[in-house]
Amino acid sequence: MHETMIAQSLLATISTETAKQNAKPTCAKISCGILNAINDEILCFAFEAIAKGTACEGMKLEVEHKPMQGQCKNCNQVFDVELHRPQCPKCGSDQFDLLPDAPLVLEEIEFQTE
Amino acid sequence: MYKVNIGKKILSANEEYALKNSQFLTEHKKLCLNMISSPGSGKTTILTRTISELKDKIKIGVIEGDIQTDIDAERIRATEAPVVQINTNGACHLLAVQVNGALENLPVGDLDLIFIENVGNLVCPSAFELGETGKIAVLSVTEGDDKPAKYPAIFAKSKALLINKIDLLGAGVQVDFDIERVKADARKLNKGIELFLVSAKTGKGMTSWYEWLVKSVESL
Ligand SMILES: Nc1nc2c(ncn2[C@@H]2O[C@H](COP(=O)(O)OP(=O)(O)OP(=O)(O)O)[C@@H](O)[C@H]2O)c(=O)[nH]1
Ligand SMILES: [Mg+2]
Ligand SMILES: [Zn+2]
Ligand SMILES: [Zn+2]
Question: CATH code for A2-111?
Answer without folding.
Answer: 3.30.2320.80
